[in-house]
Structure formats: C-alpha cells, structure tokens
Amino acid sequence: MRIHHLNCITMCPIGGHLMDGRSRTLRRARLVCHCLLIEAGSRLVLVDTGFGTRDVAAPAERLSRFFLAELAPEFRLEMTAAHQIAALGFSPDDVDHIVLTHLDFDHAGGLDDFPRATVHLLEPERAAAEAQATAHARRRFRPQQWSSRDRWRTYPIRAGEPWFGFGCVRDLAGLPPEILMVPLIGHTLGHAGVAIRGPSGWMLHAGDAYFHHAEMDPERPRCTPGLRAYQRMMDSDHGARVWNQGRLRDLVRAHRGEVEVFCAHDPLEFERLAPARSPWEPVPALSLP
C-alpha cells in the first residue's frame, strides 16, 4: 500500500497568524485541504477530495458567498485532486473509491471529478447534509457538488471491533481491511476519521476533529484564537467534538509511534508527512518513483 499526500486547494481565511500561527500579518492565513491518494493493490482510493474542478470553474455557483469571503480559497486547477492524480500518472477514472470524513464543501467539492468512484460515508452525515435544516447547514453542505449521490454507500455508526480503543467501521464495501472509518462526531453529526494501515504502521486522518497540531499536545493542548472560534462556529455537537478531541489526545499519548494522527487543514502536519515538497504547490508530474 502506498500513500500520497495532496493539498487540494489552499484556503486563506481572514485572521492571518491568529488563524494559522505562522503568517506574519493579520490579513490572511494559509491552510491546506489535506487529502490522501492510496494505492491499495490494483485499487485507487481517495480520502476526501478538497475542492474540485467545477468549484474552480464556477465558485459562485457552487459555494456560499459567506465561505468564499471568509476562506478565500486559492482556486488553481492544478491543485485539484483530479489534476494531481493525473500528474502521478493516473486518470480520475482510475479512482475506484472515495472515503469521506464528512460532506463539508471543502472536503467533498471534488466528488464530481471521479465518475466511477463509490463514495463511502457515515449514514448520519448523509442524513444531516440532505436535510438542509438550517441556513448554516445550507452554507456548508452543497448539493451542487453531489452528482455522485447515486454512488454513495453509507454506514451506520455502531461500535464494531475496537481500534486502539475506538469503535470503528471495518467492512467498507470493496475496500481492504487496512482502511476503516472511525466515528469522530462533533464537527458534523456524521463526521469520521479514516484509518489506514500503511507500510510504516497506522495513520489516522482525523478530518476536522481538530484544526491545529498543538491541539494534540497531550500535556498542554492549545489552539490559535481564530481556529478556536472557527471550530466553535462550525460545531454540530460541541460537547461531542471536545470529547473526541480528548480521546484523540489519549491516543497520541498512549500510542505515539504506532499511530500517526493528523487533521485536514494544518500545514505543519502536511509538511511533516510530505517533507520533500511545498504544500502550496501540486505534486510534480511523475515525481514519485
């Protein structure tokens, strides 16, 4: 199994270093949309999609004005998952499966680019997204991005065979047992992490269960004020998110070296996992042997 790390369009939220802790001004920060392309034998599996080619072509038709103003994504076609996968020598048609942490616009925008892929997500996520129950839900969940809806495969949240103390969904249809979903409810009502057993051990893509690497410090967890406020604004269940963050810190404390935990938007984590290149540029064509 081989894992490629992709930043599928950079987001530049208002707040500068109050958001990312790295920018030199208060104007705009830089956050990644950290996706994974997994070569699992003859199958290609994508974990999240980031923004897609149709988002780049017509952002005002696909995304809410609120989030376009707040996050100011850098819409570059070459940063989409479809184009970076092509740079690695594959075709979007080669992607057999997409495993979603959740259906927020910055995680599911590229679904349309993979016309053959089965999309895996938790059942409560689909229900909450399709309900469109509040103005906030309508801003974050964008049916304009869901031409793949007839290929969605959903799973109930249930305590299955444990994974490092977490209940999980192991039997994802058509996927190897080395890829599983770990319910991490809070950011959305069907939010999940995706665990992958790769050549160097387990990795857990924790999606938006947290936003800043320092939140996983087992002894002194902390977060920038901007990201703390953004997480609170986006919470569907604040208590559940905080509880699950605590469980992730316990995982890091007890199993450091066995499980590599990372989230969807922290550039420092991306740089740690893909140290040979800049997160702000696409995968160079056929750069990986």
Tell me what the structure shows:
With 289 residues, the chain is of the alpha/beta class. It has a single domain (2-273), classed as Ribonuclease Z/Hydroxyacylglutathione hydrolase-like (Metallo-beta-lactamase, Chain A, 4-Layer Sandwich), CATH 3.60.15.10. It has eleven helices and ten strands. The strands form two sheets. The chain has a six-stranded mixed β-sheet with strand order 1-2-3-4-5-6. Strands 7-8-9-10 form a four-stranded mixed β-sheet, with helices on one face. The protein is globular, with a radius of gyration of 17 Å. The model has no long low-confidence stretch (mean pLDDT 95).
What layout of secondary structure does this protein have?
Layout: E1 2-7, H1 17-20, E2 34-40, E3 43-47, H2 53-57, H3 59-62, H4 65-71, H5 81-87, E4 95-99, H6 105-108, E5 118-122, H7 123-131, H8 135-140, E6 152-155, E7 179-183, E8 192-198, E9 201-205, H9 225-234, H10 238-255, E10 259-262, H11 267-273
Parallel strand pairs: 3-4, 4-5, 5-6, 9-10
Antiparallel strand pairs: 1-2, 2-3, 7-8, 8-9
CATH class designation? Alpha Beta
Low-confidence stretches: none
SSE class: alpha/beta
CATH homologous superfamily designation: Ribonuclease Z/Hydroxyacylglutathione hydrolase-like
Radius of gyration, rounded? 17 Å
Q: How much is the average pLDDT?
A: 95
Largest sheet: 6 strands, mixed
Give helix and strand order, one letter per element, not per position: EHEEHHHHEHEHHEEEEHHEH
CATH topology: Metallo-beta-lactamase, Chain A
Helix content: 25-40%
Question: What share of the residues does DSSP label as strand, in percent?
Answer: 15-25%
CATH architecture: 4-Layer Sandwich
Shape: globular
Work out the number of β strands: 10
Instruction: Work out the count of structural domains.
Output: 1
Please count the helical segments.
11
Spatial ordering of strands, largest sheet = 1-2-3-4-5-6
For the terminal residues, how far apart are their CA atoms? 14 Å
